[in-house]
Design a protein that fits this description.
The protein has 3 helices and 15 strands. The protein is mainly beta and about 250 residues long. The strands form 3 sheets. Strands 1, 2, 3, 4, 5, 6, 7, 10, 11 and 12 form a 10-stranded mixed sheet that branches. A 3-stranded antiparallel sheet has the order 8-14-15, with no helix packed on it. Strand 14 and strand 15 form a beta hairpin. The mean pLDDT is about 90.
Length: about 250
């Protein structure tokens, strides 16, 4: 199976959990929708190109940082004792905006490894070419979370049999469907489960984002052994003579 292998780095990044507000918590790795969105922006795609993604990586630490946040509600009139900013509303009464401080969790020194397999094999070389020469600066997470792409290469994924336990070289999202399919695939499994968004469409009437596909995954930590029953085979990539399991979703 032909895949696009992407190695990348971020100094600081936040992959926000949708349910976090007071502190903008981050996922330990970017979710599928964020990676797919970055690829589409970098390639200049204007419509969804179906693809499967494997997401792995490792980070040095995380920290909490302050940022300026703005809160407002449609139709709330400006009050000088309540709001810091006023926005024209088209009539005599402007809308009010509250400005204050918030906190965001940032992942520090994030090294990322993606494997991308488009459903249409003819798109593989197109995506590989455009990621090497993106039409817009790559960012992952927030717009200011710049992504340094260190390598984009075509590679062949192969089915390999797990004769012995193989330690994961990176943290990784492992789809629960794989864990259910292969008994004891992840040894000493104390992983965190997430339901990560992947594909959405925008409702033309309301303008709201509607999620069409989500993936249930286990976040499996680096150095966790991968094994399974005798005869278990998984997709893998060989990088510098090291076997890297690949978990497409």
């Amino acid at each position: 199976m032909k895949a696009i292998r992407v190695k990348a780095y971020q100094n600081l990044a936040n992959y926000r959990k949708p349910t976090s507000f007071v502190l903008k918590e981050s996922y330990p790795l970017p979710p599928y929708s964020s990676v797919i969105g970055m690829i589409h922006m970098a390639c200049g795609f204007t419509s969804y190109v179906p693809m499967k993604i494997s997401i792995q990586g490792s980070y040095f630490s995380s920290l909490s940082d302050a940022y300026i946040k703005y809160e407002f509600g449609a139709g709330i009139p400006f009050e000088s004792g309540r709001h810091q900013l006023a926005v024209p509303s088209g009539d005599d009464k402007p809308f009010g905006i509250t400005r204050g401080l918030g906190n965001v969790q940032l992942m520090v020194d994030m090294n990322l490894l993606f494997h991308v397999v488009p459903d249409d094999s003819q798109m593989t070389e197109i995506i590989e070419t455009r990621l090497n020469d993106p039409v817009l600066y790559p960012a992952l997470g927030r717009w200011e979370d710049l992504l340094r792409i260190d390598e984009v290469a075509l590679t062949d994924l192969e089915q390999v049999e797990l004769d012995d336990d193989l330690a994961l070289p990176n943290d990784a999202y492992v789809p629960l469907a794989l864990l259910y399919q292969y008994e004891n695939l992840v040894k000493q499994d104390s992983s965190t489960r997430y339901n990560l968004h992947k594909v959405f469409h925008v409702d033309p009437e309301s303008g709201k984002r509607i999620w069409d596909e989500s993936i249930e995954v286990a976040f499996v930590a680096q150095n966790n052994p991968i094994g399974g029953q005798t005869g278990t085979t998984i997709l893998a990539d060989k990088i510098d003579e090291q076997l890297i399991p690949v978990f497409l979703a």
